[in-house]
TrEMBL record:
Boundaries of every AAA domain copy: 1-173
Family matches, as CDD domains: ParAB_family (cd02042)
Pfam families found in the cross-reference section: AAA_31
Protein name: ParA family protein
């Protein structure tokens, strides 16, 4: 099983849209059994996929009350696509003064081990919050690959270095080696965007995917419709870009 985290310390860069569409494409077009793990207390990925946390959420994994992954996983209306939803309760993980931080970092790796043993999924995808909270570090620690969505713009340049440094420090925790790639998102054809892209392609501390994701209103529409954009508007620019990018990702995986 592969595990991929979608990480960026900034909000609004397309993490959730990338996580959900990657999950949707792998399940629908590649026949992969996918588990999406909503690791952001905002619960946007859960909402996007049309699932409410109800009785269970990722927070239950961290408070130690859940011994069985079956208790926290919910099916979605999409074939081969399941989710562990999230809600604000997950924010309390970082506020708990008594928490065993080492154990919290291991939570998703332990979940992964259990899923591998039972051979239930082919891919796990973690949608992370815009912070290095414990659930985010735990997700990175459980992943082989980290994908950093980058919205081209002036502030990305300093943010990228910060992120690369922090990912390097997580890498040094002695856990398995993981690869880090950048993906340009919410791209549109303007001078400033092209300049930012040129700069990033030359100076980025992490390799960038060749494919990028164009900006289209269909994406925001799809989030309201609670459907991956590849389903809501299969021929839209972003849907085509996400499919082309997943094909590129599959080549490096
Ligand atoms: N390719 C795109 N085209 C247009 N809007 C997009 C695109 N990707 C993301 N968005 C919009 O940008 C906003 C932030 O995206 P989101 O995935 O929620 O970012 P993050 O998870 O990094 O905070 C959302 O309103 C989303 O609908
Ligand atoms: Mg998000």
């Amino acid at each position: 099983m592969k595990a991929i985290s979608i990480v960026n310390l900034k909000g609004g860069v397309g993490k959730t849209v990338t996580a959900v569409n990657l999950a949707g494409i792998l399940a629908a077009d590649y026949g992969k059994r996918v588990l999406l793990v909503d690791s952001d207390p905002q619960g946007d990925a859960s909402q996007y996929i049309g699932v409410a946390p109800d009785a269970c959420s990722t927070a239950d994994l961290f408070d130690g009350g859940t011994a069985y992954y079956e208790d926290v996983i919910q099916h979605t209306i999409y074939r081969d696509l399941d989710i562990i939803p999230s809600d604000m309760q997950l924010a309390s993980v970082d506020l708990d003064a008594d928490i065993d931080r080492k154990q919290a970092v291991r939570v998703y790796a332990d979940l992964r081990d259990a899923l591998v043993e039972d051979d239930v999924y082919d891919v796990m995808i973690f949608d992370c919050p815009p912070s290095f909270s414990l659930p985010c570090i735990s997700a990175i620690a459980a992943s082989d690959t980290v994908i950093v969505p980058i919205k081209p713009g002036a502030f990305e340049m300093s943010g990228m270095r910060l992120l690369a440094d922090q990912i390097a420090s997580v890498r040094n925790t002695g856990l398995a080696k993981r690869r880090v790639f950048g993906l340009l998102t919410i791209w549109h054809n303007a001078d400033a965007t092209r300049q930012s892209e040129d700069w990033l392609r030359e100076h980025s501390p992490i390799p960038l995917f060749y494919r990028k994701i164009r900006r289209t209103d269909k994406v925001t529409e799809s989030t309201y419709a609670a459907q991956p954009v590849t389903r809501w508007s299969p021929t839209s620019a972003a849907a085509r870009d996400y499919r082309a990018w997943v094909a590129e990702l599959m080549e490096v995986e």
